[in-house]
């Protein structure tokens, strides 16, 4: 696997947190984060000037995909033709390996840094520590805590547990097509 090096922001000296604009191949640094880390906003500035909407984060490209951001939609997006778009700029997705953090990994880091754990623990209160089967939560990504709490409530219902947890092995055995597209399989892997 190849890890390309020598990439640098076209407007400053940053060599990581770089975004390749998929319209013209410009390579510019990412946003500055609330804590002063991150980039110098050059990719975002470039979008404001040009309105070229899509950028891929260099260092997150692997044969399985990459982080693609749409400035127009102001969110991460899927680019179903990513492989073609990258090959236009001489990047063969199939031989690339990961060298930088994905946006998901950065969000997990940020949650840890913000001391979410101390909030969850209700710092200052006398609480009894519980752990073990039935007490393990789901990893939070950004705003997914709302979804996680709904899933945890659902799986606490005996009927739901019976349908998607107790029969999970049978569901996996019956499953024939693409497991990522099968609702029953995906529901059964959550617990
Ligand atoms: Zn820059």
TrEMBL record:
<keyword id="KW-0862">Zinc</keyword>
<keyword id="KW-0378">Hydrolase</keyword>
<feature type="domain" description="USP">
    <location>
        <begin position="136"/>
        <end position="191"/>
    </location>
</feature>
<dbReference type="InterPro" id="IPR018200">
    <property type="entry name" value="USP_CS"/>
</dbReference>
<comment type="similarity">
    <text>Belongs to the peptidase C19 family.</text>
</comment>
<dbReference type="InterPro" id="IPR001607">
    <property type="entry name" value="Znf_UBP"/>
</dbReference>
<keyword id="KW-0788">Thiol protease</keyword>
<keyword id="KW-0479">Metal-binding</keyword>
<dbReference type="InterPro" id="IPR013083">
    <property type="entry name" value="Znf_RING/FYVE/PHD"/>
</dbReference>
<dbReference type="GO" id="GO:0006508">
    <property type="term" value="P:proteolysis"/>
</dbReference>
<keyword id="KW-0833">Ubl conjugation pathway</keyword>
<keyword id="KW-0645">Protease</keyword>
<dbReference type="GO" id="GO:0004843">
    <property type="term" value="F:cysteine-type deubiquitinase activity"/>
</dbReference>
<dbReference type="GO" id="GO:0008270">
    <property type="term" value="F:zinc ion binding"/>
</dbReference>
<dbReference type="InterPro" id="IPR028889">
    <property type="entry name" value="USP"/>
</dbReference>
<dbReference type="GO" id="GO:0016579">
    <property type="term" value="P:protein deubiquitination"/>
</dbReference>
<protein>
    <recommendedName>
        <fullName>ubiquitinyl hydrolase 1</fullName>
        <ecNumber>3.4.19.12</ecNumber>
    </recommendedName>
</protein>
<dbReference type="Pfam" id="PF02148">
    <property type="entry name" value="zf-UBP"/>
</dbReference>
<dbReference type="Pfam" id="PF00443">
    <property type="entry name" value="UCH"/>
</dbReference>
<dbReference type="InterPro" id="IPR038765">
    <property type="entry name" value="Papain-like_cys_pep_sf"/>
</dbReference>
<keyword id="KW-0863">Zinc-finger</keyword>
<keyword id="KW-0677">Repeat</keyword>
<dbReference type="InterPro" id="IPR001394">
    <property type="entry name" value="Peptidase_C19_UCH"/>
</dbReference>
<feature type="domain" description="UBP-type">
    <location>
        <begin position="1"/>
        <end position="93"/>
    </location>
</feature>
């Amino acid at each position: 696997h190849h890890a390309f090096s020598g990439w640098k922001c076209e407007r400053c000296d940053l060599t990581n947190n770089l975004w390749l604009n998929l319209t013209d191949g410009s390579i510019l640094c990412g946003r500055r984060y609330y804590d002063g880390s991150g980039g110098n906003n050059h990719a975002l500035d470039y979008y404001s000037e040009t309105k070229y909407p899509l950028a891929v984060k260099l260092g997150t490209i692997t044969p399985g995909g990459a982080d693609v951001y749409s400035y127009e939609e102001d969110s991460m997006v899927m680019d179903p033709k990513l492989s073609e778009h990258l090959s236009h700029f001489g990047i063969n997705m199939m031989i690339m390996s990961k060298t930088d953090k994905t946006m998901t990994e950065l969000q997990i880091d940020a949650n840890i840094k913000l001391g979410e754990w101390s909030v969850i623990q209700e710092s200052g209160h006398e609480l009894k520590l519980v752990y073990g089967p039935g007490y393990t939560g789901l990893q939070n990504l950004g705003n997914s805590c709302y979804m996680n709490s709904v899933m945890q409530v659902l799986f606490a219902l005996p009927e739901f547990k019976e349908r998607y947890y107790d029969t999970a092995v049978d569901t996996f055995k019956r499953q024939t097509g693409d497991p990522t597209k099968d609702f029953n399989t995906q529901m059964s892997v959550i617990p």
